[in-house]
Specification:
4 copies of one chain form a homotetramer.
Chain A (H helix, E strand, L loop, with lengths): L12 H14 L8 E2 L2 H8 L3 H13 L3 E4 L3 E4 L4 H24 L4 H8 L1
Antiparallel strand pairs in A: 1-3, 2-3
Helix pairs in contact in A: 1-3, 2-3
The structure holds a DNA duplex.
Chain lengths: 117, 117, 117, 117
Amino acid sequence: MLINIDYGTRIPIYEQIVLEVERLVTLEILKPNEQIPSIRELACSLSINPNTVKKAYDILEAKKIIVTKSTKGTYISENIDNAKKAKKEMLIGKIKNDILELEKLGLSKEEIFKSLK
Amino acid sequence: MLINIDYGTRIPIYEQIVLEVERLVTLEILKPNEQIPSIRELACSLSINPNTVKKAYDILEAKKIIVTKSTKGTYISENIDNAKKAKKEMLIGKIKNDILELEKLGLSKEEIFKSLK
Amino acid sequence: MLINIDYGTRIPIYEQIVLEVERLVTLEILKPNEQIPSIRELACSLSINPNTVKKAYDILEAKKIIVTKSTKGTYISENIDNAKKAKKEMLIGKIKNDILELEKLGLSKEEIFKSLK
Amino acid sequence: MLINIDYGTRIPIYEQIVLEVERLVTLEILKPNEQIPSIRELACSLSINPNTVKKAYDILEAKKIIVTKSTKGTYISENIDNAKKAKKEMLIGKIKNDILELEKLGLSKEEIFKSLK
DNA sequence: GTGGTCTAGACCACA
DNA sequence: GTGGTCTAGACCACC
């Protein structure tokens, strides 16, 4: 599974894993009902502690993004549309905030959009 | 100086001070060559330890946003254009990343811009 | 790690650590990706306060000479060429200044080079 | 008198004044028996505390670089050759050290001299 | 009064 | 165990 960990940030590793899985799911690189690596496998391939992966999987399960069928492995949930919709809204919100900041710095919306094209 | 500290966040106090000063500088509420509160003063008015303020001032100085004249106090740099330019680029960069994410989720640039207007 | 601290100088301890690590890196005694002592370890072996070591490590990190992987330790950066190049330029710059001073005192470049051989 | 004070350094102001006067003397911009500004004048023109200038002048007098004829003002000493010779040797020594450092970084003397021409 | 350095030690999250 | 943050308070040089 394509997960990159950045050690130079304040975001804890377990949270980075959560975000990465969410990203892969919303991008449909990970598809509903697809099996994902076991805790041990992922921990090994990322050279991190299994406890850390466990914590991430626990959170993902609480968010209903994955389900673990005990002894049979861990799978992406069937329904992931909510995740996608929430992510879109979150991103639009972030951009709006940043635009506000830029406007405070004296840029007009037109100038900003021009820089973005 | 108008600085608000939020204790309920993961962002450390010293970094909040850095961000606040940067904000006040880019908004030109703090002007070039203007003196800012002494370490002890700010520490006192925020009810925090002087060392914490010192760390923030150290970072601001490394970013060339302030200059400290030992025994004479601390001042906003003469040239704050770098600070403003850097902030603009940072914000544009953030937005571009978010747009990329949205495009991966299936939105076109036109749709995105429409949501932002 | 072979670091000597001189208490009889105006250079603060944390800066001496920075200079020593830079020296060891440019001399390739410390190699890329090599782990260096933990903050507590070095503090202990130098009989100084961990905060002082931390400050030195912070500066070295800002200079991109080391990277700290939280909870996993501190390492020499992969790419130390910047450090070496910066040091070379710094030294060449210092010498050029000194030569200028000597020329002002009436020596020619030839005379200076002769004294240096 | 052409003296520049750098507030962004660890060298105290009084010492910077000492160094600047020494520099001007060795460069023969200030000549033997020439009168230099009074403490009050210099303090005023540099916008610093007279005590600071006083301390610098005391040191310069102890080094026999200036003499104060009380009530008549302060003058450059008659004999300044020793100062010049000492400075030359100091500079040559500094350069030799820097060259050693560069050689440790893998540069040959020829390469170094080439960078300096 | 100012900033600069350092100590001693606490508490936290993370692994 | 690791690093990250913060406090409380000391001492210093300088002005």
